[in-house]
Amino acid sequence: MDPNNTPDETRAAVNPVAATLDLLGDRLTLALLGHAFVSGTTRFTRWLELTGAPPSVLTDRLNSLAEAGVLERSPQSAGSDRHDYLLTELGNATWPILVCIWGWQREWTPEGAWQPDLVHTACGHRGPATIRCGACGTAVTGADTDIEMDAEAIWTVTSGARRRSSRGPARGAAGADMQFNAVMEAIGDRWSGAITGLALAGTRRFGRFRSALDISPTTLTDRLARLCAVEILERPAGSEREYRLTPRGRALFGVFVFLIRWSMQAFPQVPGPLQVLHRDCGNLLRPELQCRGCDGPVNRESARIESIVPRPHA
Ligand SMILES: [Zn+2]
Ligand SMILES: [Zn+2]
Questions:
Q1: What SS3 state is found at 242?
Q2: Sign of CA dihedral 302, 72, 186, 199
Q3: In 10 A of CB 75, how many CB atoms?
Q4: At the top level of its lineage, which domain of life is listed (predicted)?
Q5: CA atoms of 280 and 289, how far apart (whole Å)
Q6: 180: helix, coil or strand?
């Protein structure tokens, strides 16, 4: 890090959680990773079929994931200029984020039944996992943690243009995973992801969101309204420009703790803007997935994801 940087420049340059949302907080990117995990997809043509995304947008997302070290290109045959895109170790580390997203969708949305199902192979239990503290082994929810936020941190994510251009066509042509749904409103949009993260960390007032985010008031108002429309946030009666998480918004805790965890793996040298502490044991929360059937650990070795069931055509 350049010691001549002013603190402002340093902060703006490296906010690992914002950078993580910038990369992963995108519905197509999450869909690509989902297909890699669920059906072992490694090829451009297969992702194209599965998502219905415009080819140029798909190329852009695969390039971003390769640049970030989440996927690596491997020639399909010797001398071929076609590539497979394989998950790296960092790519595989996004697995619990996807598992939490699917689990949330199954529990909190009407379309949840169409999302991939988690099966704990060890005991046969089927369904979403619990989050536990890796230090003390106790199950945790957001209510068991304290989130310390660097009040000076600035959250900058890529603004609308790139996303907007991909959004209409992708939604129209796409399969089930590209259609509108609440979790994608909260996570699959970079700004909304940052807002939801700040809300989980205790931010409530419009002015506070505004000062933490490098965002225009119009965009902030738009995203807050969208998060209220999908019942992630609500406005307490009688409050002026104040927002709080609904129960389904608070249930996104698991998704965010694994996003924060992943940001620490992706940016190991950079202190993050959020510290999640497990109040009972006092440790920094190292989240783990735990089976609700047998309390055993849930990971890629001990669990499988059952394929996305195609949504019947109306
Ligand atoms: Zn603990
Ligand atoms: Zn189990």
A1: strand
A2: positive
A3: 11
A4: Bacteria
A5: 18
A6: coil
Ligand 2 geometric centre to CA of 35 (Å): 24
Cβ neighbours around 32 below 10 Å, total: 23
Distances from the Cα of 162 to the Cα of 56, 61, 159, 178, angstroms? 11, 11, 7, 17
Compute CA 29 distance to the chain's CA centroid, rounded to the nearest angstrom.
Answer: 10
The alpha carbon of 286 and the centre of ligand 2 are apart by a number of angstroms equal to: 20
d(CA 188, CA 193): 7
Whether 2 maps to a domain, the answer reads no
CA of 113 to the centre of ligand 1 (A): 32
Q: What is the mean pLDDT of residues 108-134?
A: 89
Question: Residue 289's domain is classified under what CATH number?
Answer: 1.10.10.10
Does the pLDDT value for residue 254 go beyond 70?
yes
Task: For residue 313, tell me if it sits in a domain.
Answer: no
Q: Which two tokens stand for residue 97?
A: 């984020």
Cβ(126)–Cβ(103) below 8 Å: no
How many domains does one find in the chain? 1
**Residue 314 lies inside a defined structural domain of this protein:** no
Q: Which amino acid does the sequence have at 177?
A: D
CA of 292 to the centre of ligand 2 (A): 6
CA of 137 to the centre of ligand 1 (A): 6
Q: Determine which of 43-52, 112-121, 196-205, 246-255 has the lowest per-residue pLDDT on average.
A: 112-121
Give the list of residues 6+ apart from residue 300 with CB closer than 8 angstroms, or none: 92, 95
Residue 3 pLDDT: 44
- Predicted confidence (pLDDT) per residue in 179-230, tens digit: 446 667 777 788 888 899 899 988 999 999 999 888 899 999 999 999 998 8
Kindly state the average pLDDT of the residues 244-258: 94
- Residue 217 resides in a domain: yes
Q: Which of 150, 184, 175, 157 is nearest to 26 (CA)?
A: 184
Looking at the CA of 123, name the nearest ligand: 2
Question: 10 Å Cβ neighbour count for 301?
Answer: 9
Q: What is the ipTM of this complex?
A: 0.98
